[in-house]
Design brief:
146 residues; mainly alpha; 434 Repressor (Amino-terminal Domain); 2 domains; 8 helices; 66% helix
């Protein structure tokens, strides 16, 4: 799959503007030359996944966000507000963002598999601990009314 540079440069520029960084500041943070970054922003160059990762790190955004914009990765299914919040949270590291997104995707896949395999079971989203707690509270409620 090739890199889609059509909107990538605009997206990087918008992110740089939001971060209130100059082209020179981002180029230094991403360890790329000013002319190269300028060409990327204008859609004249196709950066590698490695360069995109360094630009994302310089912008303090998720590398996954740039990979999706570039067409390297498919957009994850699920609640966009959750993935966007995780990807844009500047209080956690890139590694932590990636890990949270992977955990979120794993939960989604697990719940999708459970729903596909047992579509009529109402407890599909409950863990074993949740089910036992739910059962205990229901049992207590029944004994209290006798």
């Amino acid at each position: 799959m090739g890199i889609d540079v059509s909107g990538l440069g605009d997206f990087i520029r918008d992110q740089r503007d939001q971060a209130q960084m100059s082209l020179r500041q981002l180029a230094k943070a991403a360890d790329v030359s000013n002319p190269y970054l300028s060409q990327v922003e204008r859609g004249l160059r196709k950066p590698s996944a490695e360069i995109l990762g360094r630009i994302a790190q310089g912008l303090r955004i998720s590398a996954e966000t740039l990979y999706v914009q570039a067409g390297i990765l498919a957009q994850r299914a699920g609640d966009d507000s959750v993935t966007t919040a995780i990807a844009s949270d500047r209080t956690i590291t890139e590694r932590q963002r990636t890990t949270l997104l992977q955990i979120y995707a794993a939960f989604q896949a697990e719940n999708h598999a459970a729903a596909t395999n047992n579509p009529s079971k109402p407890d599909q989203g409950m863990s074993t601990d949740d089910k036992s707690t739910h059962h205990e509270s229901t049992t207590e409620d029944n004994h209290g009314s006798e």
